[in-house]
């Protein structure tokens, strides 16, 4: 008989994919996403999510932005959790609508009691060739 062990991150991801969001006992966060306007043509490397939850409260290995696993993290100067995600992964999210606002959802669990948290923010997604790029001289 084969047994499977699921990490907390796998359980969170399964819950988010299956239910679309967390259900009961969820801690709702205020989040801010940078850049607020994501240009598909941008050569940027990360999308940064600023939160209002204490850095030490977060089980970082359970944090996802939509279906994207966290890339790196830090505390801001107020001691709040800041998450960074691959910009390339955000640009290729299923259902991303170019020329419109798109909702990004940060989800995860707290360290102490495994309480689910989430926060949502909208970003504008555009596809604009930067001036001077790709032009022949």
Features:
single chain; 137 residues; 6-stranded mixed sheet; elongated; 4-stranded antiparallel sheet; mainly beta; Immunoglobulin-like
Question: Please, could you describe this protein's structure?
Answer:
- The structure is a single chain.
- The protein is mainly beta and 137 residues long.
- It has a single domain, classed as Immunoglobulins (Immunoglobulin-like), CATH 2.60.40.10.
- Helices cover 12% and strands 45% of the residues.
- The chain has helices at residues 8-19, 87-91, and strands at 27-28, 31-34, 37-39, 46-54, 58-65, 68-69, 72-75, 80-86, 100-110, 116-126.
- The strands form two sheets. Strands 1, 3, 5, 6, 9 and 10 form a six-stranded mixed beta sheet that branches. Strands 2-4-8-7 form a four-stranded antiparallel beta sheet.
- Strand 5 and strand 6 form a beta hairpin.
- The N and C termini lie far apart (67 Å).
What's the layout of helices and strands?
Layout: H1 8-19, E1 27-28, E2 31-34, E3 37-39, E4 46-54, E5 58-65, E6 68-69, E7 72-75, E8 80-86, H2 87-91, E9 100-110, E10 116-126
Parallel strand pairs: 1-10, 3-10
Antiparallel strand pairs: 2-4, 4-8, 5-6, 5-9, 7-8, 9-10
């Amino acid at each position: 008989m084969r047994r499977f062990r699921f990490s907390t991150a796998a359980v969170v991801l399964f819950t988010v994919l299956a239910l679309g969001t967390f259900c009961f006992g969820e801690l709702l966060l205020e989040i801010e996403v940078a850049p607020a306007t994501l240009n598909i043509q941008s050569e940027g490397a990360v999308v940064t999510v600023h939160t209002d939850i204490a850095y030490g409260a977060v089980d970082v290995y359970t944090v996802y932005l939509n279906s994207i696993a966290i890339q790196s993290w830090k505390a801001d100067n107020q001691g709040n959790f800041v998450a960074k995600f691959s910009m390339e992964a955000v640009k290729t999210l299923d259902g991303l609508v170019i020329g419109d606002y798109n909702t990004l959802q940060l989800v995860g669990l707290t360290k102490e009691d495994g309480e689910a948290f989430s926060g949502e923010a909208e970003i504008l997604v555009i596809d604009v060739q930067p001036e001077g790029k790709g032009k022949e001289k």
